[in-house]
Design goal:
2 copies of one chain form a homodimer. With 472 residues, chain A is of the alpha/beta class. Chain A has 14 helices and 20 strands. Chain A folds into 2 domains: 5-209 and 385-471, Zn peptidases (Aminopeptidase); 213-270 and 313-380, Alpha-Beta Plaits, CATH 3.30.70.360. In chain A, the strands form 5 sheets. The first copy, chain A, has a 6-stranded mixed sheet, covered by helices on one side. In chain A, strands 10, 12, 14, 15, 16 and 18 form a 6-stranded mixed sheet that branches. A 3-stranded antiparallel sheet of chain A has the order 4-5-20. Chain A is globular. At the A-B interface, strand 10, strand 11, helix 6, helix 7 and helix 10 of A face strand 10, strand 11, helix 6, helix 7 and helix 10 of B. Strand 12 of chain A pairs antiparallel with strand 12 of chain B.
Chain lengths: 472, 472
């Protein structure tokens, strides 16, 4: 694909000139602590997001969700002049859907941040704050990219644009499948740009063609009304912490094999195209080890296709948190009445959160752990996009042009998200593009973005929009 | 044993008349948050305790302990007049040693207290505050009992009194064995009154003739420099929480059997006298179930000797706390780099904390858990006193006289304490007596004592002192 140098030059310049202004918009979004897990700032975050979209010419609406956080839906039609220019022979303007989210991960542990997590703070060429990358910075980058496209097309959009910006992505997007189903006509589109993306640790743009699913649960046990003195009850009272430990140990053993019967019944093995893509990916093993201070990988893996396949194309069962009894310094001789664990199952095609949950319940019951309660805190089905779809080829060409580098293409991401309703309900090809990088401490203290990544990711998005307006 | 009605009447009246004043002293002790586990208030607590003892005529000294909290050692000699009266034929005055501690358990969870834990607060016939029972109230009760004895003996002590008041009982008294050994001549005595005691849930005085030992450890695992996104690392990075869960599950299974090889090698079975004492104890099963809201006991036990034996005369392995990763509300998709558990082993004769620790290390290493670090946070050997020792008979007679009820005699307590150096190094018979009751929320929020228990426990202590002065 050959890009129009006049328009790309115009867009790139526009992006450079207006980045500072859009960082001001980002600061306003970051200042609202939209922590879905803690039920903070959600309504205000939705209102601010809708207002921002309206400022840039989109018709925005806040749709409430029964039992969930509101979703901002917005859109704008292609301008008549730009449309005629893009499609001299006439025809319907293509529709591009942007999926993003206004909620963020908790800022805890707050004491490990070098600046206030909810104050956008620049240090050198970096901007710090909760959500600057995941995902408020991406919302801002999309808006800037679209403004750049408009500017290059004579002040009009050359295609129809839709936004769906939800507020529960960081707590599992439990309501997104039903929401998309209910609004499938309103959200109908030809292609979708996903909420994240960016460069790998070598600065190469990344394209990821799928997302693992997730089933996130809290397991809890209550064995008594209140804690007992451990000297009194140690050998006669049930202990919630022990019950939880034994239940957890029954889920997965030190061999890393998930022991829940039927858990892997619907796991589809990677096909030859997946393996080809995995083989073409760069080696990241040393970088991963260094970055996390991990001495070795699980199961004796050292790198290569084996490690990359294991990282993204197998089901996982991860303890994300444990809590029971006395957790302070020193000792306290207490027998806990309550214990809790957060457990995250990542799913690959064709697993579903529903079957994972049912199998988990059956397994605990069969193992004598009917006393372990399961609360589902999140669930997404896995989703894939065909690596050879024309929209993906267009997005990869756009990446080559924006970055001047060959993109790294992965068949799946290790992470999750509610892409399944978009790929399967709406039938859309989904591409990733964006402003992140592996060192950005997403989900961790000192989340940040780098100026150049923001500019490059925005230029990439602008090229996708520009090329897609012409491609249909 | 017949008690001198004139002296017991005098003592009882003294105690009633001076209880209010001694509650004022207790308020001063409670106000210093001597939380050994949190390294708070220890020096100030020791100074205040020593000053209090000096106020009542004891020579007190604060002895520092290498790597530990200071110990207050105090004493007073028998007065010449009282001595002549107690032993008309002459002879050495007997020496009674009081063991107590000025440190307290952490107040957490503070939000569950109905009044500030470090402000002695009266509501009705109860006094609330951290340490009012365990153990500051006992220090105050001992002092008042001795004042009452002095008053009944013409202003003089009829025997020699020694105090040893340590500051690490709630964190395992790690330095007490070496301290007692180093100061064995200074602490030499004929009998010892232990730090606690009181009535059972029916108001009957309790005598317990031994303490289980303890080995309290923190198990910790670190698998990386920092937490990872669970989507990134779930199937390739070691997970500290999983490592900990598997290590813990290897220690004890749902059958409650401790799986550490050689753990029970030196367990002495209860003898016929122990079983006789256990059989004579009242049934507490229903009370225990109700009080803690526990639906059933472990191993199908329902009560009787079986339950009482299991409660105090077997080794235990109790998880007291678990902590790892994200513990807040909702979900966070994080792969923890660090995990910690607090584990409390209760020991019976002739187990030792040293062998428990060595066997635990060997077991973890053999099971592939060399990465699990063990930090010992407390250790006491188990200790016993002969149920038929004349000092115990005297203490039981004193209980009958003070309470007007037959005491409940247990061969062992489920709890622990550093009694071993006193029973074995100093060769002392040890009796319990005191002001506590099972509903007093010791080690829990809203720790409290009841006025009548304080008065009765103090009268009991005064009778023991009075009778022991005459018994030698």
């Amino acid at each position: 694909m050959i890009f129009d140098r006049e328009r790309t030059g115009h867009m790139d310049q526009y992006i450079t000139e207006h980045t500072e202004r859009f960082m001001g918009e980002l600061a306003r979004l970051v200042a609202v602590p939209t922590v879905a897990a803690q039920h903070r700032g959600v309504e205000e975050g939705a209102r601010l997001t809708a207002a921002l979209l309206e400022t840039y010419g989109y018709t925005a609406e806040i749709l409430s969700v029964e039992g969930g956080n509101p979703v901002v839906v917005a859109g704008a039609r292609a301008g008549a002049g730009a449309s005629r220019k893009a499609r001299p022979g006439g025809g319907r303007a293509p529709v591009l859907l942007f999926y993003n989210h206004y909620d963020v991960q908790p800022a805890e542990p707050v004491e490990l941040w070098d600046s206030d997590p909810f104050t956008l703070t620049r240090r050198g060429d970096r901007w710090f704050g909760r959500g600057v990358s995941d995902d408020k910075g991406h919302i801002i980058s999309r808006l800037l990219a679209l403004e750049a496209v408009k500017s290059a097309w004579g002040g009009e959009l050359p295609l129809d644009v839709k936004f769906v910006i939800e507020g529960e992505e960081e707590v599992g997007s439990l309501h997104m499948p039903a929401f998309v189903h209910a609004h499938r006509e309103r959200l109908a589109a030809d292609a979708c740009i996903w909420e994240f993306g960016g460069v790998d640790h070598n600065g190469r743009p990344q394209e990821v063609l799928g997302l693992r699913g997730i089933c996130y649960v809290e397991l809890s046990v209550k064995t008594a009304d209140h804690d007992a003195h451990s000297g009194l009850g140690g050998s006669i009272f049930p202990n919630a912490a022990w019950r939880l430990v034994w239940a957890l140990a029954s889920l997965k053993g030190p061999d890393e094999r998930i022991r829940i019967p039927h858990h892997a019944d619907h796991v589809r093995s990677p096909d030859s195209r997946d393996l080809e893509l995995l083989a073409a990916m760069p080696e990241e093993a040393d970088d991963l080890r260094t970055r996390y201070g991990v001495t070795s990988f699980l199961k004796g893996m050292t790198g290569g296709v084996e490690l990359r396949r294991e990282q993204v194309m197998v089901p996982t069962c991860t303890i994300c948190g444990l809590s029971s009894g006395y957790e302070g310094p020193g000792s306290k001789t207490v027998l806990p009445a309550v214990a809790r664990a957060k457990v995250d199952f990542r799913l690959v095609p064709d697993q579903t959160p529903e079957e994972v949950l049912a199998n988990l319940r059956a397994h605990l019951d069969a193992g004598g752990f009917a006393d372990v309660e399961i609360t589902q805190l999140g669930g997404d089905r896995p989703a894939r996009t065909d690596p050879d779809h024309h929209f993906i080829r267009l997005a990869l060409d756009a990446a080559r042009d924006a970055y001047g580098l060959e993109p790294v293409v992965g068949p799946m991401s290790g992470g999750s998200g509610p892409a399944h309703p978009f790929t399967d309900e709406l039938g859309l090809p989904v591409t990733m593009c964006g402003i992140g990088y592996p060192g950005g401490s997403v989900h961790a203290p000192n989340e940040h973005i780098v100026l150049q990544h923001f500019v490059d990711g925005t230029r990439h998005a602008a090229r996708i929009v520009d090329a897609f307006a012409l491609a249909s």
